[in-house]
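Hi D.,

Good news: the full-assembly prediction came through. Inputs first.
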Amino acid sequence: MMPTKLHPALIGFTVLVFIFLVGPLVIVVGSALSDTTYLTFPPQGLSLRWFQNIFEIDAFRRTILTSLQVAVISTFVALIIGIPASYAMSRYRIQLPRWLSTLFILPVLVPELVLGFSLLKNLAFQFNAPIYLSLIIGHTILILPYVIRVISASLASFDFSIEEAAISLGSPPLKTFFTVLLPNVRSGVIAAFILAFITSVNDVSISIFLTGPGISTLPIQLLAHMEQFFDPTVASVSVMLMVLTVAVMAIVERTLGLTFLAK
Amino acid sequence: MKRLAGWTLASPATLLVLLGLVAPVAATIYTTFGTPGGPLATYQAFFASGFRRTVLLRTINVSLIVTVIALVIGFITAYVVSRAPGWLKSILIVAAVFPLLTGVVVRSFAWLIILGKNGILNSSLINLGIISEPLQMLYTQGSVIVAMVYLFVPLMVLTLVGVLEAIPDDLIQASASLGANSWATFTQVILPLAVPGLIVGAVLVFTGSFTSYATPQLLGGEQVMMMGTLMYQQAMVTFDWVSASTIAAIMVVITIAIVAAMNAAARRLNPMTV
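Then the structure:
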């Protein structure tokens, strides 16, 4: 069968759109490599000194660590509570109320800024909860829908009769979970982990309210730095984050295939 | 028994969302009604202020413009991507996913370099002799719109590629062989089938723009304040938490109303569910 022919104008337009999408990121990479003390593109003189500068600024070292910590902890918590929830919703669909799936979409519907502010006002202030704990709760809620969506998608193709077979042959439930169910949704778990992780690392709107003296995340530190300086440090941190993105994409491609994201 | 097992497994996540999201957000909204001067006093104060009305209208205006531009660009691009040969399609999807997974700060920062006073665009225009003085491009509504379109086009493309891929080539060729020209095929076959996807994409982009913070903060600043930046300013700079809560409540109501309306529209307009 012949594929549909495309009008050349449409192809030309699409080429321009992709230049528009990729160009600005190329510019960021270029200005990170510049040897100047101000941001410029194309780079004048090549140097890696702005990458070195990231680690010489104490605030960046600290916030990189905080961001990684928060992302790892909230991703693990989201997986530990999200996997059983996704399982329950596929396995016991009839027994559970329908509003439950709506509840798990709520974190996507409620604006992140509102969640962040509400956690500050009604958790951190009202109950004197530590900011760090509030930050982790906020991030866990933010990424829970991603975890549930990805795991549910991989459970959709899981044949629950395999699990029943294992149980009727005498395998205890917990062992069945780890030896039968989990290996079958492995790629889903890896993809969920990695998508949740990057979502947490990139978050601004929740974290902006839940950072205070001593606690800040990398994107918030970047915003603060940009208001005072216009040197290539921010560009080199951006490049670092892009390298992380490439790693994430490689892992998603290996596990779910990138077309999963186009759904 | 099964019901119990189901609830046991789902309860930690359910509790987290109820206690960590529903309760605090409900409390925030609730406090806006309990102020002295009547239950709606905070909303009257919000709408009585010319500045805040301007911010609300500007936010709606910017979000609508961004949504329309992203719809047009995203739809055409997604159509071409969906009809591209396999290998090229993978490359194009990677090129759209990459910006999507790159953080909003990095993507807004890119436009700071491009649109700045000594930025790439200004220096190129001066070098070409088109202008002699650098133009003020940052901190204008235009710069916020450009950066937001940049932010949301990948999302729109990826939302629509799946929808458009599902339209079989046969259908398009059948339309052509029955005498429809490409414009008629587009308006009578492709567009109606893409409507549900277009609605989903439009909702994602509109609500995303309406509640954004980092982009208007970096590219709009004080001059182009939007609901998100105004809310942050009220909460963390002037510490007027009642006012911040009111803005939060307005954002929640508008977001949920739009999602509900579009859900209903998507169900009615979906030609596949007759």
